[in-house]
Design goal:
With 317 residues, the protein is α/β, with parallel strands linked by helices. Helix content is 30%, strand content 16%. The strands form 2 sheets. It has a 9-stranded mixed barrel with strand order 1-2-9-8-7-6-5-4-3, surrounded by 5 helices. Strand 10 and strand 11 form a beta hairpin. Helix 4 crosses helix 5 and helix 7 runs parallel beside helix 9.
Length: 317
């Protein structure tokens, strides 16, 4: 069961917020047609302010075009991350997490979000980032088809219908706060955990008119326990077909990575670069550049950094 675990994120105080370097090439709120833009790639780090300069030296500046950060409901983006985005001329991607700042922690139930319990905090966040250039991306309540978040649809008191209602409320608040240039990214997990009635990817789809960008996240944890080595095409192509059938919009691999347990991570990255042939709407890949309890996903090794540079070159064609 390759979906039975999730990476941990250091999302405690804003100063320790993780950052991801993602991909997109839009100048405004109107995304391009499929095939009209190159793919740009980046990574997630727990401390981007310190880590991005070293990463640029390792993989080049094209790997840090977008900086993505996790923000707990009621908080704002860390000022250091904002400054880094401006200094790097990078797009900011904000994953909005209505919980207590820890994976698996309690938070407001989805029906409370739908009733406006988080509206004031969302509006403050939108006002903080709406003037950024390029236009920022907001990823509210990611991976709802899994059990590990406060907003997971299978959690007690939640449901897929409640998630859709909460998303609609979040979008209304974003637009009302002047966030016309804030792109909304809907990104479930690449497979549903558990795969059960009512927890399918499509059950959480809020409607094409409610989103600007679509995507999915997924990881190769390698051979660990009952998990198997999983190549990028096996990991993402089914989710890509499902998600783009719901909304033919630019598609992001919102977060991914591989360990070295039982396979060659450099070869995995090279295979990642081939997805463009079978996923023509692919516009972004965010690498999870962290060492944590689920494994070492970092690009620090020479072979993986070299493979990643080759991936960037291939994605820019």
């Amino acid at each position: 069961d390759r979906g039975a675990m999730a990476p941990a994120r250091a999302r405690a105080p804003p100063a320790a917020l993780g950052a991801a370097l993602g991909l997109a090439a839009w100048a405004g709120a109107s995304p391009p047609e499929a095939g009209a833009a190159r793919i740009e790639a980046g990574v997630y780090q727990d401390d981007p302010v310190r880590g991005v300069p070293a990463l640029r030296r390792a993989v080049g500046p094209k790997g840090v075009r977008v900086i993505s950060t996790y923000v707990t409901a009621g908080r704002l983006v860390d000022p250091g991350v904002l400054a880094l985005a401006r200094r790097s001329r990078a797009r900011l991607m904000v994953s909005w997490m209505p919980d207590a700042g820890r994976d698996g922690a309690r938070g407001p139930r989805l029906r409370q979000v739908a009733r406006g319990a988080q509206a004031r905090g969302i509006a403050r966040l939108v006002r903080q980032v709406r003037g950024l250039r390029p236009a920022p991306i907001l990823r509210p309540m990611p991976e709802p088809n899994t059990p590990w978040y406060a907003w997971s649809g299978t959690r007690a008191g939640n449901s897929a219908a409640a998630y859709r209602a909460a998303w609609t409320r979040v979008r209304r608040v974003v637009r009302g706060a002047g966030g016309r240039r804030v792109l909304l990214l809907w990104a479930p997990y690449a497979r549903s955990v558990p795969e059960a009635p009512g927890n399918a990817i499509a059950d959480y789809f809020p409607g094409a008119g409610q989103i600007d960008v679509v995507g999915a996240s997924g990881y190769n944890f390698g051979r660990a326990g009952d998990l198997a080595w999983t190549d990028p095409d096996a990991l993402f192509e089914d989710a890509y077909r499902q998600v783009t059938a719901l909304a033919p919009k630019p598609f992001w691999i919102a977060e991914t990575g591989t360990t070295a347990r039982g396979g060659d991570p450099a070869a995995w990255i090279r295979r990642l670069g081939r997805l463009r042939a079978t996923m023509p709407a692919l516009r972004g890949v965010v690498w999870y550049d962290v060492r944590e309890r689920a494994g070492d996903f970092r690009l620090a090794r020479r072979a993986t950094a070299r493979a990643y540079r080759a991936f960037l070159a291939r994605s820019a064609r």
